[in-house]
Amino acid sequence: MTVQSDDYMYLDGKKHTLIDVEKGKQIIDCEPSLKPKIWGLTSDCWRGYTADYSVVDGILFGKHREYPEEIEEDGSLKSPGIMIPFTGSCIIACGGDFWSSDFFESYLHFDEALELYFERGVLKEKLRLNSETPLKYEYDSRTYKWRYRGDNDEYGE
Description:
The structure is a single chain. The chain is mainly β. The protein has one domain (8-146). It contains no helices and 11 strands. Strands 5-4-3-1-2-6-9-10 form an 8-stranded mixed sheet, with no helix packed on it. The chain has a 3-stranded mixed sheet with strand order 7-8-11, with no helix packed on it.
């Protein structure tokens, strides 16, 4: 199966990749008005849309992104979207590399990861994860791991 398109979260001026959501939950499903009316189905996006999230003043906002993407040239969202009353946790990461190919595993190497906990759309806790923290991934079949300083091959070894 083709590797699926990522969702992103903008936090503290950085674009993070959403790499995990608490098992059994979907962030965008918490706000019915965010469900897309037109689904642009492609092999790398079986949902028909991707989602962009942002945390502004401790509040979670989101919007679905249909193709063509609704992103400014500088990479920022055109609007923060709608407040999402999500309760649960997610893991986001930035500062890494993504490698993918059809029928092969993909690896997301990252320098920084955060676990965020929201209650009804309000950010209650932000935990900085480090390379000693075991990460569980239950949202998709993608493989990810820490990138260590001095790694110079695509697998971080």
